[in-house]
User: Fold this.
Amino acid sequence: MPRTLRALAATALLLCLVSACKDTSSEPPKPVQATPVNAATAGSVSARVRYTGPVPPPQPINMASAPGCAKLHSEPVVDPTLAVNQGSLANAVVYIRQGLENWVFAPPENKVVIDQKGCLYEPRVSAAMVGQAVEFLNSDPEAHNVHGRASVVPAWNFMMSRQGQERVLYFDKPELGIQVGCDIHPWMRAYLSIVPNPYFAVTGADGSAQFRNVPPGQYVIGVWHESLGTQEQPVVLPPQGELSVSFTYQGK
Assistant:
């Protein structure tokens, strides 16, 4: 590792040790008694997130300060902040924001995995339920630190200096759009949203999200995007209903 990067890594670790860098949680949550969803009356919600207007050209990411990162890429790397495909918006978090406060849900058993690969975070945008395992991996030969700049859940900052290293965190309360970064490689950025129920998704290239086995009721559906902000819509899902909602962000 070049001397400058070693110094940055040491500084990041020192800051973590002397500041309020907390281990959000190393233990999984205790089991809960979930409220059963009646499959006979449950329905589904489909959402589509669109973008209209001009799409700014993607800006190249300059990795010249870290030759070890640059050599991991054979093609130019561009900033993925605004990913639009024929009017569909990727990397938007869609979720049921309101209407399930009296329900209790067990967190999904699968892990949400955020990898550090090619000195980038993969995926760029992730979402997990309160109590669900979030695993950070380092697939790079380069050292990274994982700095979560949260404001509701405790912030965190830890080193991942070895290739193949992993660390699992759990979160006990919701927060949207937590920025995650690497202080050693400042272009590295990801966003993690923690939501209070299992009805959430990050849109792919087609801008779509779907929730199944949703109990009937009155809800507010929310959407979050890292540069375009939030939107929400009130909806009513009847028993065995199939509901479609659409969100549109207007470019400048």
